[in-house]
């Protein structure tokens, strides 16, 4: 698996981040909306596995299957070059650290992409819960089980685990830039995002779809559960990607040079 030298990776990240920061508002919103739609296929396939499989959470074979299909949505989004908020917790932060972009520009990018991601996920979930059970491959109970798995933890867990998820997504942005070739990128996306799925870490954008499944299907998932999940996982994701990847890797490359 060929890789760029570290300085070239950083330069490429800065160039990519600046390109995204300077994009038109409508382009960022539409790309974020597309990513919010596409990433929903991962949680949807998780519901299919839980419906058709004899096992459930806690069974090793089922857990591995769930983690594998969870990564499908990320493959669609990242290889399709749509804008994903959690990638930009590293990608768009590096130009700010390099003093080629401002915090205001970073907040603009984050805000537009995040809104697009959330609205796209909302539309995908509405379509899924209305149309998919009628096909006989997904039960409403599977939707509820996926949501409950994320919202049943204490609030501090959502933040701390969200930091780890953001950290991994930041690493993904760095590794994707370093890798050469589509197959290498597919392998990296699968390894990183399947790890997030296997550890049940809260990814704010994929988890938006997962928790909305339960909110629309089950009375046991409340709007407060959804808002708590979304806010804490988002903050944790942003912290993990920005601090543990963008700041640390930028610092060691610059000082190493």
Q: Top keywords for this entry?
A:
membrane; Aquaporin-like; transmembrane helix; about 260 residues; mainly alpha; about 80% helix; formate transmembrane transporter activity; Glycerol uptake facilitator protein
Write the layout of secondary structure elements.
Blueprint: H1 6-21, H2 25-38, H3 41-52, H4 60-79, H5 88-91, H6 93-97, H7 103-131, H8 140-151, H9 155-178, H10 182-198, H11 204-217, H12 223-256
Helix pairs in contact: 1-9, 2-4, 2-7, 3-4, 3-8, 4-10, 7-11, 8-11, 9-10, 9-12, 11-12
Proportion in helices: over 70%
Measured by DSSP, the beta-strand proportion falls in under 5%
Q: Major beta sheet, specifics?
A: none
Order of helices and strands: HHHHHHHHHHHH
**CATH topology grouping:** Glycerol uptake facilitator protein
The CATH superfamily is known as: Glycerol uptake facilitator protein
Broad shape: globular
Structural class: mainly alpha
Assembly status: single chain
Count of spatially separate domains: 1
Report the count of strand segments: 0
The first-to-last residue Cα distance is 24 Å
Mean pLDDT comes to 94
Uncertain residue ranges: none
CATH class, anyone? Mainly Alpha
Note the total helix count: 12
Architecture per CATH nomenclature, i.e. the level-2 architecture = Up-down Bundle
Instruction: Write down the Rg.
Output: 18 Å
Organism: Halostagnicola kamekurae
Transmembrane segments: 28-52, 64-80, 109-135, 155-175, 187-206, 226-248
Main location: membrane
Membrane topology: Multi-pass membrane protein
